[in-house]
TrEMBL record:
It holds the Pfam family OMP_b-brl_2. It comes from Flavisolibacter ginsengisoli DSM 18119. Residues 1-18 form the signal peptide. Residues 17-172 form the Outer membrane protein beta-barrel domain. This is Outer membrane protein beta-barrel domain-containing protein. Keywords: Signal. It comes from the Bacteria.
Length: 191
């Protein structure tokens, strides 16, 4: 039994020493397609942009942890017969992701994301003084939590990724209204 334990501890030590942690970082940017869920009649998505930095630690040949800091433009539109109101929000997003990577550069990822609302406003295409907008802080939460799932390709310096973010906490203070969206990214890695 002692010999077996000694052999197992030797093997574990060798495996751990063979696993060198590699780090990489880069930039990403692209379009966002966000909406409010459940939306209801007249609610549609808003297209915006996101941009930021990412940092990856590769722990094994197939598993990595990636942290990002992103500026993200999100929101939704509400239309009725008279006008369209656009709700525009800017967030600072911090996703923390577990990635499963292949040697060919393909990857899938999932993890939590926290967002801090930096600004928000409402606009209308036809406001003749008939609409008084309520200040954003009175009806929206400043912090939101989301889940993320996605994938992409990054081999060498350039890549492409796509991620779906689904709201876990409500964007709205007194009712259900999760911010959900798709982000498509061009990736650049510093080597």
């Amino acid at each position: 039994m002692k010999k077996l334990l000694l052999l197992l501890s030797f093997l574990v030590t060798q495996v751990l020493q063979a696993q060198e942690i590699k780090s990489s970082f880069g930039l990403k940017a692209g379009p966002n397609f966000y909406t409010l869920s459940p939306g209801g009649d007249g609610v549609s998505g808003r297209t915006g942009l996101h941009a930021g930095v990412w940092y990856r630690q590769t722990r094994t040949p197939v598993f990595s942890f990636q942290t990002e800091l992103l500026f993200s433009m999100e929101g939704w539109k509400f239309s009725n017969n008279a006008e369209t109101i656009t709700n525009k929000f800017n967030y600072l997003q911090l996703p923390i992701l577990l990635q499963f990577r292949t040697r060919y550069g393909l990857y899938i990822e999932t993890g939590p994301q926290v967002g801090l609302r930096l600004s928000g406003k409402q606009e209308t295409d036809n406001n003749n003084g008939a609409i008084d907008f309520i200040p954003i802080d009175t009806w929206t939460n400043r912090w939101i939590f989301s889940g993320a799932v996605g994938g992409g390709y990054l081999k060498g310096r350039f890549g492409l990724g796509a991620r779906y973010n689904f709201g876990i906490t409500s964007l709205l203070k007194n009712e259900d209204g999760n911010s959900n969206g798709l982000a498509v990214s061009l990736l650049y890695a510093f080597q």
